[in-house]
Please model this.
Amino acid sequence: MKRFISLFLVILLFITGCGRRTSSASIDNAVDDNYRNYYEIFVYSFCDSDGDGTGDLKGVESKLDYIAELGCNGIWLMPVMPSPTYHKYDVKDYKEIDPVYGSVEDFDSLISKAHEKHINIIIDMVINHTSSEHPWFKEATDYLKGLSAGEEPDSAACKYVDYYHFSKEQLDNTWYQILGSEYYYEGSFWSEMPDLNLADEELRADLEDAAKFWIDKGVDGFRMDAPLHYEEADTAFNTDVLKWFYEYCKGLDPDFYMVNEVWASEQTIEDYYVSGNPSMFDFSFAQAEGDIIKAARGKEKASKFTEKLLEYEEARRAVNPDYINAPFITNHDMPRVANALNGKTDDMKMAAALLLSMPGSPFVYYGEEIGMSSKGTKDENKRLPMMWSASDTSGMCKGPADADKDVVQKCEPVDSQIADPNSLYNVYKKGLSIRNEHPEIARGTGELIELPEAGDRDIAMIKRTWNGKAIYVLYNFEEEDVSIDLNYKSIATMSVSGAEATGGSIPARSVVYMEE
Ligand code: CA
Model:
């Protein structure tokens, strides 16, 4: 009888094992929590469904299978609310979809189709400022213009005068005069982005109402834009705003997620974890100067990379024990990875391997998985159309009107990279799939493992333990294969050459996942 049961178990394991391998689009086996593999989408440049040249929500919906195949189970949509700008980081209605992107019905459909595929959707929530075309701002400025000489503003007559920062003095050069009145308003980013006064209770009630609108639609989280600027250099105030907003959202949906753009030093990022919010983007490891790109260029040792990883983890966890790191290489505000790495595919593969080895929820900026380029520092050039195919123009977007027209994408488009087993796309796909198969990589508590066998070679190892299970992450930054006798056996390899680790041999420039 015992033998019969064992045989039955072997067959069962064989069947489930095969099932997992053949259904690459399914990520049903991933743990259903807020640790996700995110894909950041600029809707405008991603996929156009109706041939007007501008990406839209139906276009995003048509690419859900692409995103799931890649191995992502979360999407961050850059702003989708109505706005006068192409980037939409200045909202004029917090409870609508920009008509260029589609309708609220399109959004509902996208959410339900994404959830069917176990993909969470988070959206950009921009509350540092509104558009100067927001009715709140228009009513407030109309009211101020209508005041007679010597008459003080009264929020009982117009509550919107408290929604923004108004003054009779131009406090600095980020304050702009309201034409036809003696008042100025603060617009710290731009004259057409008046700063909101987030201390005002009535404004907070309106923002709660907006949050509720999207949470009722099934949105799984918000990416909070610019909390560092709610009040300049006022961490106590800003973290209090984040705490209030997060707790309100959690009250409506206990699984609600929030990730914050605190583009600042590591110390400031750690300070913002006081807000109790789960995630701050890991700016320390991102951008051309960050540790991922430095290491991918061969300018940082494996020992340094792992040491910093563990040091930051410990410091952040000390402030918020439930923190979820949010690593990324670049986003829509930065020159792309391909530019930072001079178009070297091997270096981009290494950058991908490093990003996807990090704890938390990694964010992949659309096009990064095929090595798309940007140009210079102009924002529009960092948000160019997704390269789906060289032969099939369906879904192709025209991109931002002010982008330079002479940017040549040197990378192969999506369709040819899918077909090429050695492509950058397939490296991303493999790394994301490894994360889905081994939940300890994202969730495990890290611990440095000394490797005396490594000698002075550029190798380091982190053990990640979660739920009683451990995975060992070996970083080999050497330019050549390394022969080393370790007491661990490899279970998955991310290497620049595509070679797998075998007993005693670790491929050059690789991240190898091992077990005891
Ligand atoms: Ca369109």
